[in-house]
Specification:
Layout: H1 5-13, E1 24-32, H2 51-60, H3 73-80, E2 85-90, E3 95-100, H4 105-110, E4 115-125, H5 139-142, H6 174-178, H7 183-186, E5 196-201, H8 214-218, E6 222-227, H9 241-250, E7 252-253, E8 257-258, E9 265-270, H10 280-295, E10 299-302, H11 327-337, E11 341-345, E12 366-372, E13 396-399, E14 403-406, E15 412-415, H12 418-436, H13 441-450, H14 469-476, E16 487-489, E17 495-496, E18 500-504, E19 513-518, E20 523-528, E21 530-532, E22 535-541, E23 547-555, E24 558-566
Helix pairs in contact: 9-12, 10-11, 12-14, 13-14
Length: about 575
C-alpha cells in the first residue's frame, strides 16, 4: 500500500512527553547528517507533495530534490526513544524540534550517530504538562479542516456604513488599495480567486465568528489550519494579530471594508508564540512554510520578524542579516526557489534601538514590505536596510500607518505597523497572480517590483516604494495597453509629494528627452533618459517647490505630457 504523508507524520510526531525532572522546559533543534534509508523517493513526490505544489514548482522551474524528502522516519523514532517529545520536523533542514524537561537529553542526542548537531531553541519556566499532539491535525498534508461559523456566538459588524460616497464599495479601506492602483485589478474581476494564500501568524482569534469574514468562511475558502505552537485543535482561540492581518486581505463588507484579495483561499497557520520570543518560533515558521509548500500555496504572508530574543545569547546580530544565514531566512529562500512568492513585513524598529529589518525580511527570496501613511510618506517606525551584505532592503511599500483592519469586537479601526502593510500588498499580489495566470512566479514578482515608482533607484527606507498594479498588468503580459504612455513608471497620480523616476517599458528605438516646467513655463529640470539594463530611465526628478508642473517627454516628433500638482511632505503636519 502507498505510504502517505498522513501515515508517516502520525507515526513520527506522536511522541510521548518525558517525565517531570526539572522546573524548566527546553526545546532543542536536532539536525541529522543525511537521509539514508528513507522510504521516500523523488520519483514519487505525490507521497509528500500535493499536485498543486508540483504544478507550482513546474512553473518555477524547480524539480523535486533530495532536500524535499521528509526526515527519515527511523531517525525520528530513535530520537523519540531518548524520552524527548518530537514536536515537528523539517524536510528542508533535515531536522526535528523536540521538547524536554531534562536538559541532559541534549547531550544524549548529540552522541547519536545520525545526529549532526543539537541547538538550544528556548527555555521556559515550567507551567504544566507538555502539550499533547492531536493526530487529527495531520489531515490534508498536515492541515486540520477549519471549524465552521458558530451562529450562536457570531460577532456582527458594528461600524456604521459611510454616508454618501462609499469609495467604490471599499469604504474605509479605499486608501490602502487605491494607493497601489489595485482597484484596476478588482474592477476587472481579479480579486484572488483560485489563489491559495498561507498566512503565518500568532493566532486568528474569533476570525471564524466574525461577520467581516462571512464570505470567506461560508464559502469554505479557509482550506486548512494548523497550530504549530500548542498543537491544539484550533487557531481561533489565541492571539488576534493574525485576525487583523487576515482582514487586510480577506475582509469583505461592501461599503465598509473590502480586502485586497477577498476571493482568494487561505491556510491559517499559527507559528508565532506571542507569550515569549525564542528561536523555536523560527523552527515553527519553517514547518509552517513547508506545510504551505506541500499543500500547494501560491503565496505566503508573514507579518513576523526575528532579531533579539528573551535570552540575549540566543538572539541575532546585525552581521547575521546576510539573507542566507539565519534558519528562517534560509527556509524563505528555499520556498521562493520552489515558486512561492514570499511577502514579509520589514519590521517596526525604524525608530527603535535596532533600526534594521529582521529575519526573514533580509532574504533575497522575500519581498520585504515597508510602511507608509495614506499620503505615501514613510512611517517613522518602518524598519530600514541595508542588509549586512550591502543589499538594498526593504523591497516595496504599502499602507501600514492607520491601516483599516477588522477588530474582534466587530468594529473596523486603524492599526499601524508593517504587520499590515505586508498583507495589504500580499493580497494585491494574489489578485495580480490571478490576472497573470500561468506566468512564472519570477516574472510576476519582477513585474510588480518594476512597477514601483522608484524601482531603478531603490533606497534603504522604502526600497522601490509603492508598486502600481495597473502598470504591473502591462508588464507581465508584455504589452502596454495605454499606447500613448511608453513608461514603466512616471506620474501615477495628479498629486506628487516626492522626487520621482521615469523609465521605459522596453528599450526605445531612439533617445527620449524630458523637460520639467513650472506653471509659468520656466524649465526646472531637463535631460535625456539614460540606458540601463535595456531600459531607459531618469531618476530623482524633483520639482522646485509647491505648485503645478508639466512634464514633457519627447522622442523625435513624438511627445507625451503630464500636468500634476506637487506638494512636498514638509507641508503636512
Amino acid at each position: 500500500m502507498k505510504r502517505t504523508l498522513l501515515f508517516f507524520l502520525a507515526a513520527l510526531l506522536l511522541g510521548t512527553a518525558t517525565a517531570a525532572t526539572g522546573t524548566k522546559t527546553y526545546k532543542f533543534w536536532v539536525s541529522f547528517r543525511d537521509k539514508s534509508g528513507t522510504p521516500y523517493s523523488i520519483l514519487k513526490p505525490w507521497d509528500f507533495l500535493s499536485q498543486k505544489a508540483l504544478d507550482r514548482r513546474k512553473r518555477a522551474g524547480k524539480p523535486v530534490g533530495m532536500e524535499d524528502l521528509p526526515v527519515v522516519p527511523a531517525y525520528v523514532i530513535a530520537v523519540s526513544g531518548t524520552g524527548v517529545q518530537v514536536l515537528l520536523s523539517s524536510r528542508w533542514m533535515n531536522a526535528v524540534l523536540v521538547t524536554t524537561r531534562d536538559s541532559s537529553r541534549a547531550v544524549e542526542l548529540s552522541r547519536m550517530t545520525m545526529v549532526q548537531k543539537v541547538e538550544l531553541m528556548g527555555i521556559w519556566s515550567y507551567r504544566g504538562g507538555a502539550a499533547e499532539l492531536n493526530p487529527d491535525a495531520f489531515e490534508h498534508f498536515g492541515l486540520k479542516e477549519t471549524e465552521t461559523v458558530q451562529d450562536t456566538c457570531r460577532i456582527a459588524v458594528k461600524t456604521k456604513k459611510l454616508n454618501g460616497n462609499d469609495n467604490n464599495g471599499y469604504g474605509l479601506a479605499w486608501d490602502q488599495i487605491n494607493q497601489l492602483n489595485g482597484y484596476e485589478l478588482h474592477k476587472r474581476g481579479y480579486r484572488g480567486k483560485g489563489i491559495l494564500i498561507a498566512v503565518l501568524d500568532a493566532g486568528f482569534y474569533r476570525a471564524n465568528q466574525m461577520e467581516a469574514f462571512d464570505s470567506l468562511m461560508l464559502s469554505h475558502r479557509v482550506l486548512g489550519t494548523k497550530d504549530f505552537v500548542d498543537f491544539d485543535n484550533s487557531v481561533y482561540n489565541d492571539d488576534d494579530h493574525g485576525t487583523q492581518v487576515l482582514s487586510c486581505m480577506a475582509a469583505n463588507v461592501p461599503g465598509l471594508m473590502v480586502g485586497t484579495a477577498p476571493d482568494a483561499s487561505y491556510l491559517l497557520l499559527r507559528t508565532e508564540d506571542h507569550r515569549s520570543e525564542f528561536p523555536s518560533e523560527e523552527a515553527q515558521w519553517v514547518a509552517g512554510v513547508e506545510m504551505a509548500d506541500s499543500a500547494g500555496a501560491d503565496i505566503v504572508n508573514s507579518s513576523l520578524g526575528y532579531t533579539v530574543f528573551d535570552r540575549p545569547e540566543l538572539g541575532h546580530r546585525y552581521a547575521e542579516l546576510t539573507g542566507n544565514t539565519t534558519l528562517i531566512s534560509r527556509a524563505a529562500n528555499m520556498a521562493w526557489e520552489r515558486g512561492i512568492i514570499m511577502v514579509n513585513s520589514a519590521g517596526n524598529e525604524g525608530d527603535g534601538d535596532w533600526h534594521y529589518i529582521g529575519a526573514p525580511a533580509d532574504a533575497p527570496g522575500v519581498i520585504a514590505v515597508a510602511a507608509v501613511d495614506r499620503t505615501g510618506r514613510r512611517a517613522d517606525f518602518s524598519s530600514m536596510g541595508p542588509t549586512a551584505d550591502g543589499r538594498m532592503k526593504p523591497d516595496l511599500a504599502a499602507m501600514g500607518e492607520n491601516t483599516i483592519v477588522a477588530g474582534t469586537s466587530g468594529y473596523f479601526t486603524g492599526a499601524s505597523g508593517t504587520s499590515f502593510s505586508s498583507p495589504v500588498l500580499c493580497g494585491m499580489i494574489a489578485s495580480f497572480m490571478q490576472y497573470a495566470g500561468t506566468v512564472s512566479p519570477q516574472a510576476m514578482r519582477q513585474a510588480v517590483e518594476l512597477s514601483a515608482r522608484h524601482s531603478l533607484g531603490k533606497d534603504s527606507l522604502l526600497g522601490g516604494g509603492l508598486p502600481d498594479f495597473r502598470l504591473a498588468m502591462d508588464l507581465v503580459k508584455g504589452t502596454n495597453t495605454r499606447k500613448e504612455i511608453t513608461f514603466v513608471q512616471g506620474l501615477p497620480s495628479d498629486t506628487m509629494h516626492t522626487a520621482f523616476n521615469i523609465s521605459t517599458l522596453q528599450s526605445p528605438a531612439k533617445t527620449w528627452f524630458y523637460t520639467l516646467q513650472d506653471a509659468e513655463g520656466k524649465t526646472v529640470s531637463q535631460g535625456s533618459l539614460s540606458l540601463q539594463g535595456g531600459l531607459m530611465y531618469a531618476a530623482a526628478i524633483e520639482p522646485a517647490g509647491k505648485g503645478i508642473y508639466t512634464l514633457t517627454l519627447k522622442e523625435g516628433a513624438r511627445e507625451w505630457k503630464k500636468t500634476f500638482y506637487f506638494e512636498p511632505y514638509e507641508w503636512y503636519d
